[in-house]
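User: Sequence in, structure out. Go.
Assistant: Echoing your sequence, followed by the structure tokens.
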Amino acid sequence: MDARGRDVFIGDRVTDSMGCDHTVTGFQAIPGTCAAWILTDDHTALVPHLVEKVVGDVRDQ
């Protein structure tokens, strides 16, 4: 989920806290929690509550 509680899927686009767009390529569990890092096309691991799903993606409608 993103900062607004919207589901995020592989292939979705998200914006990080710096305003940069990324494409989601996977997820990695955060040990000791029920959350997961959001992995991106540029090999970045983003914190879920600091990203927003880009409005207009098919699954966001």
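User: And one key feature?
Assistant: The chain has a mean pLDDT of 89.
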